[in-house]
Design brief:
Layout: H1 5-41, H2 44-63, H3 69-89
Length: about 90
C-alpha cells in the first residue's frame, strides 16, 4: 500500500481508468468473437453485419487509446480477409 499522497491518488486514477477501459476492450473482444462465429456460420448477411459492428468497436477502442491503432487495423484486416473468403466461397 502506498504511503505517498500523490501515489495514493495515482492508484485511484489507475483503478478508474482500468474499469473504464475494460468496458471498451471487452466490447471489442466480444464483437470480434461474434463476427468470427457469424463468418464460420456461413450466413453472408449476418457475417457482414457482425463484421461492421466489430470494426466499429475496434475503432472506438483504438480512438480512446485502449488498444494501439495498428492492433485494431490488424484485427480488422484479418476479419475482412475471412469475410472475403466467405464471399469467394459463396
Amino acid at each position: 500500500m502506498a504511503n505517498i499522497k500523490s501515489q495514493i491518488k495515482r492508484n485511484r486514477q489507475n483503478e478508474k481508468r482500468r474499469v473504464r477501459n475494460r468496458v471498451y476492450r471487452g466490447a471489442a473482444r466480444k464483437s470480434v468473437k461474434n463476427a468470427r462465429l457469424a463468418i464460420t456460420g456461413g450466413n453472408m448477411d449476418d457475417a457482414k453485419a457482425a463484421t461492421q459492428l466489430a470494426i466499429s468497436a475496434l475503432d472506438k477502442a483504438a480512438e480512446k487509446g485502449i488498444i494501439h491503432k495498428n492492433n485494431a487495423a490488424r484485427r480488422k484486416s484479418r476479419l475482412m480477409k475471412q469475410l472475403a473468403q466467405l464471399e469467394k466461397g459463396a
